Each structure stands twice: as C-alpha cells, then as structure tokens.
C-alpha cells in the first residue's frame, strides 16, 4: 500500500510540474506534454515519473537538451509528502480515509503554491480561494475546527500580513502572502497558525542570511516568502500539536 501511495504521489508530482508550466505560459491543460526546447511531443514511456529522467540521463530524446532537475525532484517530493499522512493512521475507517484524501489535496495545493512562488514569485488566487471555501465547509461539517476557531486563525494569518502590507505600502510583502495567510488559518486553526508563522520567519531569516553571506542576494532583494509559509504550514499541520505541547512543557 505504501508503494502504491508513493507511486500516486510521483504521478501527481509529474502533473504538478506540467500544471505550473502551463498555467504560467497560458497553455492548454488538455494537450500532450512537449519538450519546452524543441516542442516535440513526449512519448508516454518518456514521461514516466523519475524513471524516464534517469533512463534518458536528464536529456530530451529528440533535441538532447538538458531536462531540468526540477522535474524528478518535484515528483520525488510529492511521492514522499503523500506518504507522510499515512504515518498518523492507526486504523483505517471511512472518516480517516476521507481525511487522508483531504490532506493529499492540501499537499498538492501547497506544493503548487511553493513551486509557483519559487519560480515566478507570485501566488495565484486560484490556488487559494477554492481550497479556502472547501476546507471551511469540511472542517465545520466534520468538526475538525469550530467556526470561531477558524475565524480567529484566519484573522491572525491574513491580518498579520495585511497589517505589514498597509504599513509598508506593499514594500515588505505582496498581496499573495495575505491570502496565503487566510488559507493557512483554515488549514491549521488556532493556535497552530502561530507556530506556522514562527517557523516560516525563522526559516526565511536563516535562508536570507545564508544568501547574503554567499552574495546570492542583496539586502533589498526579494525572497519568495510563500515557500517558507508552505513549509511552516506542513510542519504545523502534522507536528503542530506535539511541538506546542513540548514547548508548554518547557515553560511550566
């Protein structure tokens, strides 16, 4: 079963790569995949996640141009991330399986946000609001979070970035971070939204300092902060309660 889930994750990773590219380039989602260099359609057996990249030695079969390492890395990442929620399943029942499917949906959407923001420094509305509406209803009907809990988390997640946006007049953060904060609130609820924000800022600060020391960025350079928010969200979603309990145990 774990192997089967891993393969499903690989396939969704392959689809994610194509989705990010086609949405940015405004290309149809229903046409066959093609090499971005020579535009030749990719044969199905050259489109097998990870395996085809290794078999072709990272080059297009037709034009022999290099294929970006992004493709197998994203596929592997989705394969592994799809496995993580299964670690928290003690026994399978209908409610657990539904929860697993929802977590896969969240993982895929967050991975899209991560990759798109990393490549193009933009967070799209279409990756936020449909999932916000769905999760708000799901969390309420399945009693994951109360409405009050979600509204508090949304106010913190979205309001925190909105305040920064207004104070800096858009110089510190972009509007995409605000709506991503809303999504984080619906995913995590209170108080895990605070943990996710804390993790994101710690990671962002560490990476920023490293990039400055390596002279890869300047002090006024932009960093795709949505990528760190995604990582913080995933950590808080899976291990948030344990981290909060551990921290509270330290200060008691």
UniProtKB/TrEMBL annotation:
Keywords: Cell membrane, Membrane, Transmembrane, Transmembrane helix. It comes from the Bacteria. GO terms for cellular component: plasma membrane. It holds the Pfam family A24_N_bact. The chain crosses the membrane at residues 6-23, 71-90, 96-116, 147-167, 172-190, 196-214, 223-240. The keyword Phosphoprotein does not apply. One of its GO terms (biological process) is signal peptide processing. It is found in: Cell membrane. It is a multi-pass membrane protein. InterPro entries: Prepilin_IV_endopep_pep, Prepilin_pept_A24_N, Prepilin_peptidase/N-MTase. GO terms for molecular function: aspartic-type endopeptidase activity. Residues 105-209 form the Prepilin type IV endopeptidase peptidase domain. Residues 7-84 form the Prepilin peptidase A24 N-terminal domain. Belongs to the peptidase A24 family. This is Type 4 prepilin-like protein leader peptide-processing enzyme. It comes from Candidatus Magasanikbacteria bacterium GW2011_GWC2_37_14.
């Amino acid at each position: 079963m774990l192997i089967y889930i891993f393969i499903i994750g690989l396939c969704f990773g392959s689809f994610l790569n194509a989705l990010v590219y086609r949405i940015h380039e405004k290309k149809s989602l229903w046409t066959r995949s093609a090499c971005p260099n020579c535009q030749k359609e990719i044969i199905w057996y050259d489109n097998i996640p990870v395996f085809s990249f290794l078999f072709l030695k990272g080059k297009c079969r037709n034009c022999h141009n290099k294929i970006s390492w992004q493709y197998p890395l994203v596929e592997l990442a989705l394969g592994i991330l799809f496995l993580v929620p299964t670690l928290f399943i003690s026994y399978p029942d209908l409610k657990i399986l539904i929860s697993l499917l929802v977590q896969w949906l969240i993982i895929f959407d967050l991975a899209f946000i991560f990759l798109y923001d990393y490549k193009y420094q933009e967070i799209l509305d279409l990756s936020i609001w449909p999932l916000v509406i769905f999760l708000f209803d799901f969390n309420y009907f399945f009693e994951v979070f109360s409405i009050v809990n979600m509204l508090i988390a949304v106010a913190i997640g979205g309001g925190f970035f909105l305040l920064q946006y207004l104070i800096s007049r858009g110089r510190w953060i972009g509007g995409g971070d605000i709506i991503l904060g809303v999504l984080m609130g619906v995913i995590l609820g209170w108080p895990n939204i605070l943990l996710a924000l804390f993790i994101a800022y710690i990671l962002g600060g560490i990476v920023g300092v490293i990039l400055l020391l390596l002279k890869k960025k300047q002090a006024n350079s932009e960093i795709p902060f949505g990528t760190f928010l995604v990582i913080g969200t995933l950590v808080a979603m899976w291990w948030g309660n344990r981290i909060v309990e551990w921290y509270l145990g330290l200060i008691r």
